[in-house]
Amino acid sequence: IQLTQSxxxxxxxxxxxxxxxxRASQGITNYLAWYQQKSGTVPKLLIFGASTLQSGxxxxxxxxxxxxxxxxxxxxxxxxxxxxxxxxxxxxAPPSTFGQGTRLEIK
Amino acid sequence: QLVESGGDLVQxxxxxxxxxxxxxxxxxxxxxxxxxxxxxxxxxxxxxxxxNSASMAYADSxxxxxxxxxDNAKSSLYLEMNxxxxxxxxxxxxxxxxxxxxxxxxxxxxxxxxxxVSS
Lengths: 107, 119
What we know:
By secondary structure, chain A is an all-beta fold. Helix content of chain A is about 0%, strand content about 50%.
């Protein structure tokens, strides 16, 4: 199963609403996770089950979707959200696959 | 909570063994995985092992060359890597699954250990 993220990079202003899309090559129900990776650090789990927020993750992060199209939304972008975001499919895993990433910067 | 070791510079065709020591959770209750990330690339799941070592799985890219194992008494995870190739060069992360079996998402990651395969 291939995952395609869009856009590959984006620049937005503090306070903006930001949306990242992840498309699966076939249906994966809701077996999708999102990770945040800041420069020089390890990936951090944000969302699993397409929409369940991991403990400790700010509520401005929201995941939605099912089947083949999923979105990660940041309701009000903060400076600390600068990172690369990855989606991960775990339907019928192994193997588990990751998207190619979306780099988010502050304008 | 997860600390990897064993990364090194190694020549193509040689072997290397990575280790990961866990703390802060009951190691034997969860699946454990190795995930790698080449510089500037996205993560790639490499291998996973069930809580009691009864099930193991590998990515096609490493099948037949890498072997995953665990020692619950030592809260440790291992990855034996043979016939290494240049394309195996990456950070190797130890990662914890949320359940005792299956391949799911990864809720705890180590800081990684870097493997360089080069002559």
